[in-house]
Design brief:
Elements: H1 2-33, H2 35-43, H3 49-76, H4 81-98, H5 105-108, H6 110-139, H7 144-175, H8 179-191, H9 194-205, H10 211-218, H11 226-233, H12 235-253, H13 259-265, H14 270-295, H15 301-324, H16 329-357, H17 363-378, H18 381-415
Length: 433
């Protein structure tokens, strides 16, 4: 009976963490999908257009740093992982829902742009708590030998959110063709972001605190200032973690988040864009699940990250050529799908690697801060590529970002320590330390 009870609690915690990432993928990707077709045309001053819209995409990522510190420090590492995730999901979903009510620039001028940026800041602030709290809740509830795949499952929530919102996007572009989508279709897209928020909230109300946090509470070892302890006790691994996450999230936003911009700039219809992204995201889910499953057999989290990143590095040049100088739509399906698969495999091991690298005393704060600081850097990849394109062209600008980001990622992985190794029998599980 005890084992069955623990099993139910464990799955509730995993689903609670996973649902937040579904919501994050849904909301963030909804904005990315309409960056060119709607935001640049309807919500930005004419002189800024696409640059301003891509700045908005980057703007979502910056407040995540502060959200991870505020909610992780004052809620996640003090009151509990579940408590924090229940509070933040409400703010996250409501902020994104309100984007659907925004006036256009033509009607309200710069106020429309300012309101958009304000809501994006709120979205990022609440979303910043998701990764740290969700990763801590899920990984602290499972044994080390299963943590690789479970971490990849939680991570895949973002891709599932992207997959579902792309499907919704396709349906709306068909139901509201042409100008109708610019009038009402995109607003409905943001109204639907409330749905994954409600699902996430319900799943979290049924979750329980992780065994690790319960133990900390019982032994009165909860830190009063976890953010201070994080910088005092592990500065080296905080920096290396930030570089790893920055490199990986530069790769992520420079691929999956930039694909819509590339395709729509080449006059590919928005419905076709949706179909290509749907396939690419579906295949990326396979990549993250396979990567997580294999990581349970590879002797080391760090080694798994190193192998996946090296494969991606080798693939950058041929896949980017195919994705920029394409001769048919089939070339885009192949390029973006394979690239998404390889990129997702790197993400698969990240949750367990970060959780095992950070002390339980400040795990929610630490994971959230490291991941979101890297994300704040990575979020500027599409904007940077777009600004450099006039000087170097799409291919050179795109490949420069991907190469530099992946090399930085590899160097930081090499300098990091191994967190758990299957080959070391009897090794102490660092998740409880």
């Amino acid at each position: 009976m005890e084992n069955r009870s623990l099993s139910r609690v464990y799955w509730k915690n995993v689903v609670a963490a996973w649902s937040g990432w579904v919501m994050d993928g849904y909301v963030t990707s909804a904005y990315a999908l309409v960056t060119v077709t709607v935001v640049s045309r309807l919500l930005m001053p004419p002189d800024f257009g696409l640059v301003g819209a891509l700045f908005g995409l980057a703007l979502i990522s910056v407040p995540r740093i502060f959200g991870s510190l505020i909610f992780g420090n004052f809620l996640g590492d003090r009151l509990g992982r579940r408590t924090m995730l229940t509070v933040t999901v409400v703010g996250f979903s409501l902020s994104s829902f309100l984007i659907g009510f925004l006036p256009t620039y033509k009607s309200y001028g710069i106020l429309a742009t300012a309101l958009l940026f304000f809501l994006l800041i709120l979205v990022g602030l609440f979303a910043g708590a998701e990764y740290g709290g969700g990763t801590a809740l899920a990984t602290e509830s499972v044994p080390a030998e299963k943590r690789g795949f479970i971490g990849s499952f939680v991570q895949s929530g973002f891709g599932i959110g992207y997959f579902v919102v792309t499907l919704v996007y396709i349906i709306l572009t068909i139901e509201y063709p042409g100008n109708a989508f610019e009038t009402i279709g995109w607003r409905i897209l943001f109204f639907t972001t409330l749905i994954p928020g409600i699902i996430a909230l319900v799943s979290r109300l049924g979750a329980k605190e992780s065994p690790v946090f319960k133990d900390m509470k019982e032994t009165k070892s909860i830190q009063k200032e976890p953010v201070v302890s994080m910088f005092r006790d592990a500065p080296k691994y905080v920096v290396l973690g930030i570089i790893i996450c920055a490199g990986l999230l530069l790769v992520n936003s420079g691929t999956i988040s930039f694909y819509p911009t590339v395709m729509e700039s080449n006059s590919i219809s928005i419905t076709t864009v949706g179909y290509i992204l749907l396939v690419a995201n579906g295949i990326s889910l396979v990549g993250v699940w396979i990567g997580g499953l294999l990581s349970n057999y590879i002797p080391g989290r760090r080694l798994a990250l190193l192998i996946y990143s090296s494969i991606f590095l080798v693939s950058i040049y041929p896949l980017t050529i195919l994705g920029t100088s394409f001769h048919s739509i089939t070339d885009l399906y192949i390029s973006y799908s394979v690239q998404s698969f390889l990129m997702a495999a790197i993400f698969s091991t990240l949750p367990s690697f970060l959780a095992e690298s950070i002390s339980k005393k400040f795990r929610t704060t630490g994971i959230g801060f490291i991941y979101n600081f890297g994300g704040a850097i990575g979020g500027f990849a599409p904007l940077f590529i777009e600004l450099v394109i006039p000087h170097y062209g799409t291919f050179n600008s795109w490949i420069l970002v991907l190469f530099v980001a992946t090399l930085a990622l590899l160097v930081a992985i090499i300098l990091s320590k191994e967190t758990w190794s299957k080959s070391k029998s009897g090794q102490k599980d660092s998740i409880t330390e």
